[in-house]
């Protein structure tokens, strides 16, 4: 079976990264639709729900797909275009939109995070130092929206688990190869959502793909000793919050994740009583729906209003700017970095030169360099172009010329052919191995099973080409993968990890954490492994969910915003060389790359101060974004007394949301901009004084007033203002941080001054 390993032996990528990117959807950005299903979203308005639904069912008894009545109101139904148009005109309807089809954003990780925390603590031993054992005794319930779960996994044993919390109202649904006895005190709930249009034949909470099992065990799996992937990355597998309970909501099928099912899962989870919801799925960056037509944003909004923390993966469309998804301000959005473990598959040349490569392969080639080596360009067919052959495109290389040889293949970032397709072509033509050349994927281990494949940089490729050209009998071999511990530098921001800033909305910097995308390959001729090596931002979400679960268990009264603040303000910005975290190109990372920094697994349990956000603040955000009060009344369960949208609302006002980060947008003016923040003392000392330090570029003046915050038993919430004054000579966006310290806690807030309008 395939399991997620969230300790010390999988290729995991971490970082905090938040960014907001929403725009109106149009015909060119709409994702594949789930049949003729439409979602009718009615916000918190339940008065018209039954009437509209009854009217629909009278016309077509089989029209209903899902009904939403717990956390919000609405339904998903099979409608014609004209029926959908009529629905939009009905009283109480916020929006009607086609059911989108989302996709999955597809270990040693926890040990690495704990080590990185110790790097910080060694240099500043008094700050936010919390024993790892602080996570014990949790009754937190983590809900997972994914592909289902494999309950027999050792990660879901309930031995020693606390009883199921009395507040739990969920259920363990019976389905194909799944009964109520498959649930226990660890896996306390499992639901699935039927999709008659899906290619899946399994109507059950059971996991067909392995992805949901992986992320569930990453978040809250119990410790399993001696876990490895066919001997690679050996260690103990455990989740981030091993004492937390798990509730699985199967919303994904082999062909995708229908938005209507995602909304149904949100609706059920709100009623079931979960504390956290983790979603390792979403749209591509080319599809950025409006808030009221995005099932994930809608469901998350109502969940957060009920006190549920929602975490989502940021997507794998990096390193392009403005590529982040799942970025509504009420969501913790998670991106990716590398860790300190390298899965190295080396090339040995005939001149005894060793070239380091990266891959997961179980090569059975001999270790001595005896296999003929050829480049794709030298094996070109008569009809192929030089470029096609150099990149080993299908039908571009002569099968007779590569038979029995190792083939060197370039791989362009924008190639329409994946490395897997090139491997298949080389193998089919009788090649015995393939060397892929790509600078960006060099640090991401691709799995080729038993076929010898490795990935190298363009610099190393030049050395191999020079060797090929220096002799008529070039030979080489590709060695089986070995695990290299303590790899440096780490972390680096994964090249595929989605990036900011937000397109069209520069006044909110969000921070999440990162994980790697999924790969599920079993080597040919081998028994299926107990564990697998996976990567992607899919793997970030469950790590954050586990950390958030620990924070919540130790601070049960905290709001989702307080949990988010604790994670962000305790993040780490240095790597295992005690230098600034970089991107994979070696450049220093910015908040657009990694948000607040690398997550601390325990620092957020006692952060000192938190930036809390009242649920009403999100209603104000809707005002700033352009919603009128009538629309907000439909969306919200209830409005605070006297609530109204400010006159002349604008997106610039979003900068004043009480976020643990600051983002402002400067246009052609260089006039100072002032924002306000409020912090709450949650430290162990009621009477304490925090002083501020500012990290800023020379082209920017930053003034914090007051520069001291004196908390007492009667003054637990204090405010401060920050004024930003960029000089006329400043160029590009500006980055920095404001940090409050009391010699016991360190509370850091990154900031961005966006100057795209200058």
Automatic annotation (TrEMBL):
Residues 388-463 form the PA domain. One of its GO terms (molecular function) is serine-type endopeptidase activity. Belongs to the peptidase S8 family. PROSITE patterns: SUBTILASE (PS51892), SUBTILASE_HIS (PS00137), SUBTILASE_SER (PS00138). Transmembrane segments: none annotated. The keyword Protease applies. Keywords: Hydrolase, Protease, Serine protease, Signal. SUPFAM superfamilies: Subtilisin-like. It comes from Chenopodium quinoa. Residues 137-597 form the Peptidase S8/S53 domain. The active site is at residues 146, 211, 538. This is Uncharacterized protein. It holds the Pfam family Inhibitor_I9. One of its GO terms (biological process) is proteolysis. Residues 656-753 form the Subtilisin-like protease fibronectin type-III domain. Residues 37-105 form the Inhibitor I9 domain. Residues 1-27 form the signal peptide. Residues 196-215 are annotated as: Disordered.
